[in-house]
Description:
With 97 residues, the protein is mostly helical. It has helices at residues 6-30, 32-35, 42-53, 56-81, 85-96. The chain is elongated and about 55 Å long.
Amino acid sequence: MNRISLKAVLLGFLLVLVLDAAVGMGQLALHRDELFVEGQSDEEAVAALGALTKSASFLALSIFLGTLTTVVGGYVAARIAKRYPYFNGLALGALGT
């Protein structure tokens, strides 16, 4: 356990959480015209959001961007740790899974 820097892994994990939230908001902003229609009821908005999140293109982009944010977080954890960078990147990847 002395090979893994808890500080580095936690900072990398927090970065992944922030990046995932930003990516999610960005994806929803790209589809705002489909989701936010004037005069739309709450039930219709929930149904539109459900349909969007089940679409193949949205899911594929989410998987790609989520993987990318995990890679960035692993890189940051490895750079912060300075010693045994692969162990710290792996620890972040295992934590994110």
